[in-house]
Write a structure and sequence with these properties.
alpha/beta; 11 strands; about 30% helix; disordered N terminus
């Protein structure tokens, strides 16, 4: 797998790929491979129904044989349509037009003062922002949406059959995934943001590749795991014989077809003032001059240079501790892309794998049999995490941490 870089002249974004050992001071490299030892300092009924609906749809779709990730020839890339093309082709479904939910700003004079710095970057967030009837963002969406060029970079790294966007928001990442993946499952707890995401996806002509589900991620995963880890069902027809009933192979195929290849985690970081809550006198991360900037919320607005930058702890991730969120996701798949603040502590990122292995060792020591194959570490080859810095021009915006088969050199784990 080869990391690609967006054209900084065309998209004002760069993604460098130098590998280094993490230190207390951030380096200018943007792709870092860490081994765990290198750095040490309510489930609800709606979610269960959503997971069941997703699993049933997979079986009914009767997909052809799954393609290996590396064999994806780019056929999932979707051509963006003009408004006329969308309407004439029937790609625009009027009942999903969410224009009445939030205003579509066309001039800075219409924008609340605290959102003006984000509005000035609207075409970085959505290049099709002004395409009729216009991309829509609610207040949280303005400071949490991933810039399009960054989302496209991540989507290329995550190219696969089925990707789960755990916190889709207004759809920036889900739209990008729909260009490189065969299927996108987009979750959010806000019906408004989910409607805005579908609206925006229609503008890009990719809504048919995205399944929008109103659910919290934790409950959805628990329900999904309860379905996929159960024994494959046998025929419910008592008159069906073994000869003409579903074979073990066909049951296994249905079971396998439910598989999610990649999970993308972009959880809430704590709002625009998240640094005030996660910083402490003990957690100070000195940055190089090119990366000295005061942070954002999972936001991407202008930043102010500072001499020191308080580090961000995974304990500030919402709705649960960032490490717990990672552990839960690894039960779904080893292939995780974790979108984090640019000043996240590197030792905590490295510890994500360490804690997982400790948990697995404890499970084996206790003789538990309730294991998930996807979360079992490989005893022969030590797994690495790759950290990619996401830049817009000369500003560092965020980190994307890749695990499992998404890491360069670990494609065989996919």
């Amino acid at each position: 797998m080869q990391s690609t870089s967006a054209d900084s002249n065309a998209q004002n974004n760069s993604s460098k790929t130098t590998s280094t050992t993490p230190t207390a001071t951030a380096t200018t490299s943007t792709s870092t491979l860490l081994t765990p030892e290198q750095e040490k300092p309510q489930e609800n009924q709606n979610s269960k129904k959503s997971a069941e609906r997703f699993a049933e749809r997979d079986e009914e779709d009767n997909f052809p044989a799954r393609k290996r990730r590396k064999a994806n020839d780019g056929s999932a890339v979707v051509q963006e349509l003009t408004s006329t093309q969308r309407e004439s082709s029937g790609a625009w479904i009027s009942k999903y037009d969410a224009s009445e939910l939030v205003p579509h700003y066309t001039d800075a004079s219409q924008v609340p003062e605290h959102l003006k710095k984000y509005f000035s970057q609207r075409y970085r967030y959505f290049s099709q922002y002004s395409t009729h009837p216009g991309c829509l963002l609610d207040e949280e969406g303005w400071y949490s949406v991933t810039p399009e060029s960054v989302a496209d970079q991540i989507a290329e790294r995550c190219r696969c059959d089925t990707v789960l966007d755990a916190f889709c928001g207004v759809g920036g990442n889900a739209i990008a995934f729909a260009k490189t993946c065969q299927r996108v499952i987009a979750l959010d707890t806000s019906p408004t943001r989910l409607a805005l995401a579908r609206h925006n996806a229609q503008i890009y002509g990719v809504a048919d590749r995205i399944e929008f589900i109103l659910s919290d991620y934790i409950s959805f995963v628990k329900s999904y795991l309860s379905l996929t880890t159960s024994d494959p069902p046998v025929s419910e027809n008592p008159n069906t014989t073994d000869a003409d009933g579903p074979t073990k192979a066909s049951s296994s195929q249905n079971h396998y077809s439910r598989k999610i290849d990649v999970v993308f985690l972009s959880p809430p970081w704590g709002g625009p003032s998240y640094l005030d809550g996660s910083a402490s006198s003990e957690n100070i991360l000195s940055l190089t001059p090119s990366a000295k900037a005061k942070g954002k919320s999972k936001e991407h607005g202008p930043s102010t240079p500072t001499a020191e930058h308080p580090s961000y702890s995974l304990s500030s991730i919402q709705p649960i501790h960032g490490a717990e969120l990672f552990d839960l996701s690894r039960k779904v798949t080893k292939n995780i892309a974790y979108f984090l603040p640019r000043n996240t502590r590197l030792d905590e990122i490295s510890d994500l794998l360490t804690k997982e292995k400790e948990r697995e060792r404890n499970r084996l020591r206790n003789g538990s049999k309730n294991s998930f194959a996807q979360s079992t570490p490989n005893p022969d080859n030590e797994e690495h995490v790759e950290i990619e810095e996401e830049w817009m021009g000369n500003k560092l915006k965020a980190l994307t941490c890749y695990f499992g088969g998404l890491v360069s050199g670990q494609e065989d784990m996919f």
